[in-house]
Amino acid sequence: MTAGRRQTVLAAMSGGVDSAVAAARAVDQGHEVVGVHLALSAKPGTLRSGARGCCTVEDAGDARRVADLLGIPFYVWDFSERFAEDVIDTFVNEYAAGRTPNPCVTCNEKIKFAALLDKAMALGFDAVSTGHYARLSFVDGVPELRRSADLDKDQSYVLASLTPDQLRHSMFPLGDSRKSEVRAEADRRGLVVAAKPDSHDICFIPNGDTQGFLESRIGANPGTLVDDRTGGVLGEHSGVHQFTVGQRKGLGIEAPAPDGRPRYVLDIEPVSATVTVGSADRLGVTEIDADGAVWPSERELVGPTECVVQVRAHGGTAPAVAESAAGRIRVRLDTELHGVAPGQTLVLYQPEQHGDLVLGSGKIAETRA
């Protein structure tokens, strides 16, 4: 989004403090702002339970009250069918296939910056504003997505799959702020959501029981847990959706390992429903392949490129060399990473300035030791 020009902005308002302050700042900047709350559940709960879930009736009411205080129009748009198909079904299908998806990445890709942004553009809006913690700037019209000033809240990872054109029509007003500053500002403005807890769970599984949710959607698909060294059967399970690479707890294996050390999930084979387990030292990978490469700044890698990589939203980074060809990214790590699962998002950052600038992203397809 071009800075310094008054634009028509659709502010996505979840009912939380971040999107509320983002909308308020867009108003302060002189833009013509309209608020919208996305109804993502066909049967929203009446009330939240602390920090569990989101998109409830309470959240819609909170968003409306903030919009009224800001003096901007407000609407509720029903995206529940699209959300069920593009986010929930994808989540279930990925787990059934033995992969580990990030539903927040999918929601940004398919809902907030696809379905919502497309509708906003069709209605004549210039940009969509959200409460994500990430910085967005433009150099000669080319977007540059960077980490938030508040590294503890940084959300550039879940935005790294956005295309340059989507970023050109996006606003992240909180990118230069810390969360504590945002809450203090909400309090000064008299916003009813100033002290509202953040949502920490998968929004469509508010009770936090991911395995139970998946079981209800997928059903039982019995298989075996096998030892990676001997091939011996160590136990049985009711479905590969119960597991992710790197998992240690809840394996259901009664006998301890011969060396007394914990066992971890090393591999998931969905066709035979075989889950391979072994010791922690077998989890390390030094090469990662990712499909569906996206280059937010329109700069695909040219030859081997030094970078730092991140493979989970709240994980650390690791130095690496990356190459790209035919929509695939191949990464060679300087040091091993552990617990890297197919289906996770791989994000490449520029190595300078503590890995600040997003270079590209893709979905992890394969790993090698």
TrEMBL record:
UniProt site positions, description: Interaction with tRNA: 132, 344
Function according to Swiss-Prot or TrEMBL: Catalyzes the 2-thiolation of uridine at the wobble position (U34) of tRNA, leading to the formation of s(2)U34.
Domain tRNA-specific 2-thiouridylase MnmA-like C-terminal: 287-364
Protein name: tRNA-specific 2-thiouridylase MnmA
Reactions catalysed, as given in the entry: S-sulfanyl-L-cysteinyl-[protein] + uridine(34) in tRNA + AH2 + ATP = 2-thiouridine(34) in tRNA + L-cysteinyl-[protein] + A + AMP + diphosphate + H(+)
CC annotations in GO: cytoplasm
Molecular functions (GO terms): ATP binding; methyltransferase activity; tRNA binding; tRNA-uridine 2-sulfurtransferase activity
Lineage: Bacteria, Bacillati, Actinomycetota, Actinomycetes, Pseudonocardiales
Active site per the UniProt annotation: 107, 203
Entry's Gene Ontology BP terms: methylation; tRNA wobble position uridine thiolation
Cellular compartments annotated: Cytoplasm
Residues in tRNA-specific 2-thiouridylase MnmA-like central domain copies: 212-278
Gene3D superfamilies with a match to the protein in the record: Adenine nucleotide alpha hydrolases-like domains (2.30.30.280), HUPs (3.40.50.620), Translation factors (2.40.30.10)
Residues at which ATP binds: 12-19, 38, 131
Keywords: ATP-binding, Cytoplasm, Disulfide bond, Methyltransferase, Nucleotide-binding, RNA-binding, Transferase, tRNA processing, tRNA-binding
